[in-house]
Design goal:
Layout: E1 2-7, H1 15-31, E2 36-38, H2 56-72, E3 77-85, E4 94-102, E5 105-111, E6 136-138, E7 141-147, H3 167-173, E8 178-183, H4 191-206, E9 210-214, E10 216-219, E11 222-225, E12 229-231, E13 240-241, E14 248-254, E15 260-261, H5 300-318, E16 325-328, H6 333-346, E17 351-355, H7 363-376, E18 379-382, H8 386-400, H9 407-428, E19 431-434, H10 438-443, E20 456-457, H11 464-478, H12 486-490, H13 510-522, H14 527-532, H15 537-549, H16 551-555
Parallel strand pairs: 1-2, 2-3, 7-8, 8-9, 16-17, 16-19, 17-18, 19-20
Antiparallel strand pairs: 1-14, 3-4, 4-5, 6-7, 9-12, 10-11, 12-13, 14-15
Helix pairs in contact: 1-2, 5-6, 5-11, 6-7, 6-11, 8-9, 13-15
């Protein structure tokens, strides 16, 4: 039996476009004499559809897509994720389902059992869970079909949530010969290895092969990495692994003895594309779906870069933004990396940089901005904010009444820049990219209505130390030459809002700051645990209070691309008005 796993990039709400992608994948599989094509979770409507599921017209249109896909099926069977009406007379109106179709008929419908309600997930809000877990028979074999969360359960070392039902165990008890999981599992920096290790544990524990098909692409802040795979029973590694963070497809042969293998190449050798000058070599790829080697997971910096490029590219395309993007270039590392990501995602012709020096900006910072722009091939304009800044100071002088220069004047500079960027955005039809990083956003080292302006925050889930690491990797590994100026990488970070200002005037060194932030935000460690790990008590106390005291700022920040296990935004929900003090217990 020839099985194809294909990860396609679908768009939330684009039912017609998604259906075309599904039908094309099915047509290609038919041509290749594939017996079964497996596509990811909710490919008809995209993930996550959120409150679109509360619109009757949306649900009705999904059913029309389902019928079109069913009617188009032929010799090749198709297993795909979609929304179906709840068959019960009570409960939520729809279910998250896997549909198996062939020869124009719906053969099997499997409902998702476990509905996650943690982090960025809120599926129990919309879907009715399955009332039973059962195997399905097709092709003379018994299939244990699950949907995403159904395998992220109690028997794994990596528990996100525990439930009173273990779908995989029940399917094994019913005689399943293979465990299939269709998924929309979002990317995080550590997810690729962790997820595959979880699948291997399932295979080993249940003594079953595992077929895993994951979505790829990005929808709003969520990025999906694909990395679909096939784990043979008893193996500690996949026989097939698809590419991370891009569309891909691959076939396996399931032999009568229960083993899995790659199909013969049929005279079509794997081809390697020749790299362009100063561009990373492209992975070994076939020009069409079929035989695929086991792709290698990208390294830590490469995966972050690829994820953010994919996230920005899809955000612009799926939001139907026909114009380009613009961003403030400060000569600092954050705006430099944001610009590099934007060029990779959209091309240099659609990226514009604006450098906006104040009376406290150094000549070197302006020079670095223009050097970066030349290296990336983008246009850069200089708009000094000195005149505007001075006018604001003169206007406010009677009310400031001789008070000393402080954060008020610093924030005026940032807000002058925000006004210029938003004015250009309105006039030119370009989206402003926010360039702030997670470290600064966490502790409120940013200005509302100033440097927090923008339609999308590209780096909001990257700590400052990660920004430096990815930038150095770009120069050394990706470009193979200096594109981000060395002076940008080497000079002490500074907002340049007052004479000789450095970030360390207000913040700990970023290595120390990021250690506290990651432990507190992502690892959910208490202050006592952080201090016991060797972090300075004074720093831990200061940083945690800064984090908790700036929730109101983050609530007003633009959406940001999620690459960590706990990002600011929909996956982290805290009250703004409260009296809990983590450090006063």
């Amino acid at each position: 039996m020839r099985i194809r796993i294909q990860q396609i990039n679908v768009t939330v709400g684009d039912l017609a476009g998604n259906t075309r992608l599904i039908l094309k994948a099915l047509k290609d599989a038919e041509k290749s004499r594939v017996d079964l094509l497996i596509l990811p979770e909710l490919v008809t409507c995209g993930y996550p559809p959120m409150d679109l599921l509360e619109r009757k017209s949306f649900i009705e249109s999904i059913q029309q897509s389902n019928e079109e896909i069913i009617g188009a099926s032929g010799r090749t069977a198709l297993l795909f994720g979609s929304v179906r009406p709840n068959p019960l007379s009570h409960g939520r109106p729809v279910c998250n389902c896997a549909l198996m179709v062939q020869h124009g008929k719906l053969l099997h419908e499997v409902q998702k059992t476990l509905l996650p309600t943690y982090d960025v997930f809120d599926e129990f809000r919309y879907f009715e869970p399955a009332r039973e877990v059962r195997v399905v028979e097709w092709g003379g074999r018994k299939w244990g079909i699950t949907i995403c969360e159904d395998i992220w359960n109690n028997q794994n070392e990596y528990n996100y949530h525990t439930y009173d039902v273990e779908p995989a165990d029940l399917l094994k008890e019913q005689g399943a010969e293979v465990l299939v999981n269709i998924s929309a599992s979002p990317f995080t920096r550590r997810k690729l290895e962790m997820r595959e290790d979880m699948l291997i544990r399932h295979s080993s524990r249940l003594k079953l092969p595992v077929i895993y098909a994951n979505q790829t692409g990005a929808n709003t802040e969520l990025i999906f990495d694909g990395s679909s795979c096939v784990i043979p029973s008893g193996s500690d590694r996949p026989v097939l692994r698809l590419a991370a963070l891009e569309e891909d497809a691959g076939d396996v042969i399931w032999d009568d003895d229960g083993s899995f293998r790659l199909p013969e190449p049929e005279g079509r050798p794997l081809k390697t594309h020749s790299p362009e000058p100063d561009v990373r070599p492209v992975s070994t790829r076939l020009p069409e779906p079929g035989i695929s080697p086991v792709r290698v997971f990208p390294g830590p910096e490469e995966r972050l870069f690829k994820a953010l490029v994919l996230g920005l590219k899809d955000y612009v395309a799926k939001s139907r933004m026909t114009g380009g993007v613009l961003l403030g270039l400060s000569g600092g590392i954050d705006s430099a990396l944001t610009a590099a990501i934007a060029v990779e995602a959209l091309g240099p012709d659609r990226v514009t940089g604006i450098t906006m020096p104040s009376p406290y900006s150094s000549k070197e910072s302006v020079d670095d901005s223009f050097s970066l722009a030349r290296n990336l091939g983008i246009t850069c304009h200089e708009l000094s904010i000195e005149t505007a800044f001075n006018h604001f100071r003169e206007l406010l002088e009677p009310l400031f009444a001789g008070r000393p220069f402080d954060v008020a004047e610093e924030n005026i500079q940032s807000r002058c820049r925000g006004i210029l960027l938003m004015a250009l955005s309105n006039k030119l039809g370009h989206m402003v990219l926010n360039t702030g990083n997670k470290s600064e956003l966490a502790v409120g080292y940013c200005t509302l209505y100033g440097d927090m302006a923008g339609g999308l925050s590209v780096l909001s889930d990257l700590y400052k130390t990660e920004v430096y690491a990815v930038s150095r990797w770009l120069n050394s590994e990706y470009y193979g030459r200096v594109v981000i100026p060395l002076s940008t990488l080497e000079k002490p970070p500074s907002a340049e809002l007052r004479p000789d200002q450095k970030d360390t005037d207000s913040l700990p060194e970023y290595e120390l700051l990021d250690a506290v932030l990651q432990g507190f935000i992502e690892d959910h460690r208490s202050a006592d645990e952080l201090i016991a790990s060797g972090l300075p008590e004074e720093t831990v106390t200061k940083v945690i209070r800064m984090v908790d005291g700036n929730e109101y700022k983050r609530r007003q920040a633009p959406p940001g691309l999620r690459v960590s296990s706990k990002a600011f935004g929909s996956g982290r929900r805290l009250p703004l008005a409260h009296r809990w003090d983590e450090m006063d217990r």
